[in-house]
Amino acid sequence: MSIAPEHAPKMAQASFAHRIGPWMPVLLVPMLVVLGFLAIPSTSSWLTLTVSGLAMGMMIFIMASGLTLVFGLMDVINFGHGAFVSVGAFVGVSVLLMLGHMTDAPSLGLNLVALLVAVIGAMIATGAMGWAFEKVIVMPVYGHHLKQILVTMGGLIVVEQLIIVLWGPEEIYINRPEALKGAITFAGAALEKYRLVAVVVGLVVFAAMRWVLRRTKIGLIVRAGVQNGEMVEALGYRLRMIFVGVFIAGSALAGLGGVMWGLYQEVITAHMGNQAMILIFIVVIIGGLGSVEGCFIGALLVGLLQNYVAFLEPKAALISNIGLMVAILMWRPMGMIPVVKAK
Amino acid sequence: MMATVLSGDLPRSRVLALILLAILICLALAPFLFPGVRTVDTAARICIFIVLVASYDLLLGYGGIVSFAHTMFFGIGAYGVALASTHMGRGFDAIFVGATAGAVLAAALALLIGLFSLRVRAIFFAMITLAVASAVAVLVSQMSGLTGGEDGLTFKIPRELGPAFKFGDRFMGVKLNGKLLAYYFVFFGALILFLLMLRVVNSPFGRVLQAIRENDFRAEAIGYRVVYYRVAATCLSAAAAALAGSLYAVWLRYVGPDTSLSMEIMIDILLMVVIGGMGTMYGAVIGATLFVIAQNYLQNLMGAASGMFEGLPVLPDLLSADRWLLWLGVLFILSVYFFPTGVVGRLRHGK
Amino acid sequence: MSDPILRLDGVYTNIAQYHILQGVDLEVPRGAVTMLLGRNGVGKTTTLRTVIGHWRAHKGTVTFDGEDITRKPTPAIARAGLGFVPEDMGVFADLTVEENMVLAAVSGPIDSARLDWVFTIFPPLKTFWKSEAGTLSGGQKQMLSIARVMIEDRKLYLIDEPTKGLAPAIITTMARALKDLKEQGASILLVEQNFAVAKALGDTANVMDDGRMIWSGQMAELATNAALQEQLMGLSLDAH
Predict the structure, then answer these.
(1) Distance, in angstroms, between A268 CA and closest chain B CA?
(2) ipTM
(3) Subunits that touch chain C (at least 3 Cβ pairs < 8 angstroms)?
(4) Which of A204, A279, C164, C220 is most buried per CB count within 10 Å?
(5) CATH code where residue C31 lies
């Protein structure tokens, strides 16, 4: 055997653009915040808008995270994901209305307990629904995108109609719990308490998700499965079980997002999930289908941009998000953090 | 002769041929066979939806691409005619200009969206069209100065197509007026568009499209640029949908978000394609006919059924006429699972 | 050997409309290295993938350790004691070397003595323990893929072309690793194009052509018989 030439890889000095590349998506969020600061004349309005943009972003992230993971893991695209948002909102709001004596009391403790009960109820309902949805609607059409889109869309229609059967066709108005009404003033800017809570909840969910994905074996399996499911199975892990688990968790998170979104808007309708899907799709596409981090960054960008633009030019808000999507896809056609699949 | 008109794509089933013939005769003679404002209106809607659904099938059934922007293209054609007729004054020239501009704009928009999303992944297309179509729908209702917002636009069409124009007394008991001409304007417009699309799917272009749907890797390996074919199909489909929208605007003499842009119509189109049979063109005829008739008459039936279960829990709500979409949704899912080739596929192959 | 660890009887596997395996018979004895040889595209990889359950045999049976695994799902086959190194290595690029190894230890935490042994064979893995596997060189990725099956004791190791596309120095490392594994009494089914490696490691050899097994016997016999090599594989691999 011949002697191999000394294997000495040269660590070529990476160009600045190359080194900054992986961090670009993360930097986009502060860049947008600074841009908003420059564009918006009043600092206090800017602060208010930034908080509400972040709050909106967090809620979109919570709703969208399950969708992106489900796609990454099993290549399943669920157009009915919005159904979980709607159902979560209706179940959660119903629970809150039943606990009216607790939400009307001016006690933060009682309010939070009521909210917690509502959230848990919504998550159990949507989690169970996710399990059934996966079994009945999604499983028969694995590996077939066209049918997946059609069937999950059909599932969405059926669920929306069932909501109307159970709760009636009228929209339901809801008051936020007493202690979460109103705003606090910080540096001259009015910051709605509820939005601050939404930001905190969003951060907690993101941190918990990252912890599970990075620090637990289940998380490792999920991340490995997104890249190469076949190999995960060849190591002895039942990917299908994991997938069902992720589907249920993602549905439950969508339900949580639904409750939060409903309280944010203070009105819920059977179609609210479908409407939220528009932003959810934009977020998962620009984030990179399958990437939780990308989804998080994308959601913050969409939330911030929507709020800044709505302040500057109300009619352009939704179009601005389409513009953002176009710009990001021109820059990175697979989204900000593309998920590289084996094969 | 017949084979040439149908571009060699014959029904290939005796029952199917008879049903298609019956539909053709009924539509061709609708004002005489079923006189009455409501029935003629139903017939015109069927004609228009056949074109709309066929154009969607060109994309979904032949190209294997799911779009949620089809009503947007439909709406662009409808608003094109409405705006042209409003600003140029009534006339066939306004209809022509509006329809052409609508079709061109729809094709251009489809080209943009297609180049953007189909380049990367076909499923991006479904998501991006959903987002773009919703944004456009919101935009149309916000730009009320131009589009009339939620109220829409009512406009005048050429005098010759209005009920006030008379060109004879009566024929077989039917008044010979402009409304009759308007129906035949819609009928022949739809017939020509349908036959053109039949030609497209049976051309070499259509064959390549189907090859791509079956196996895009192989098609690419043989040397076809898959993206170009898919984008071209998107543009054609969008233009045809816009023309269907123009016909609809002429027929209704009105456009509004609810009649042309709404998500409900998008779902109707999906149901019609799947129930009729994807990738068959004739499926569009069957699907649209069945669906429009069901839409008009099934609701009454369900209302009656709901009344029968009065007093029981939930059941009356489930059967209420307003909940017909629920049952269509269930039917839709079952069709995709068990009946993916739809009525036409069944008639052709199933025994 | 009367009771082979793995046995294929008349296995047929189709991929789409192509009939790739057309009646493969194979016996893999315990505690030995069994070579699977043949030109490119004759069905060696498909044979391994059929054993692990990535492809399904539509005819014939696969028996592993006395148990019929033909219809079992892949995870169950793997848990029965099969370690698989695919042709493309199957390294999880976004995970660190450590995380790759943690996943490979299916039955629990990594055994530290065994890990030390792996580190002595593949020192770079210790150096890059916390690095993402995607940043490793091709040879290091291959080391990781072999290390992953070595981290636990498997009843049978299925290894697909571990030396493919590697520099000669790294091929030597791979060969030594497999030899170490063999000396521990492991049963190995190895697909290998590098005849020098095959000759050094193999106990028995099986040659495939066109979806069938055309020759089975002792590696030593094949290694010394150039005419037989010429006949079975169309070219003398010894020339490499």
Answers:
(1) 19
(2) 0.91
(3) A
(4) A279
(5) 3.40.50.300
